[in-house]
Amino acid sequence: MERIERLFWSIALPGFGQLLNKQYVKGVLFVLLEVIINVESHFNKAIQLSFLGETKEAHMIIDYQWILFYPCLYFFAMWDAFKFAKATPPPPYSFLPFAFCAYIVTTGVFYAPKVHIDGIFFGPIWFPMICVLPGLIVGLLFQSLALLKKRKT
Predict the structure, then answer these.
(1) 14-60: per-residue pLDDT in tens?
(2) Nearest-5° angle of CA 114, CA 139, CA 39?
(3) Cα torsion at 52, 56, 60, 64 (round to 10°)?
(4) Residue 73 CA to chain centroid, in angstroms?
(5) Taking the model in full, what pTM does it have?
(6) Which domain of life is it from (predicted)?
């Protein structure tokens, strides 16, 4: 349960899981990086506009050069908090879903300005969030394949 608690606090804000794991320097560093990226990219304003259905306005105010750092920071902070929770060691290859989410969500940020699905523009917040699901699926698939290969050897 401790591992899941750390993961959920990291979902709330990168660095919180590390603070709960008593990794204070790393936790403060992740929080500071999150704040810097958030402020420089105008992330909170883009989230607010997206939740209000103003995805085109969110696209206009977000700084894509800064927001591209966010998925990797976010998923790495989650993985790190999950990995270093003082519970039993994490399952083998459990980093794969986190890593594939970081890759695919970052790719989603790249494509967000151009993607329309059934005429709907999801923008820089919703489209990358949608990309979490394929990231999890691919990561879990690769984790399962790696575990199967490990069992056979």
Answers:
(1) 999 999 999 999 999 999 999 999 999 999 999 999 999 999 999 99
(2) 50
(3) 90
(4) 7
(5) 0.92
(6) Bacteria
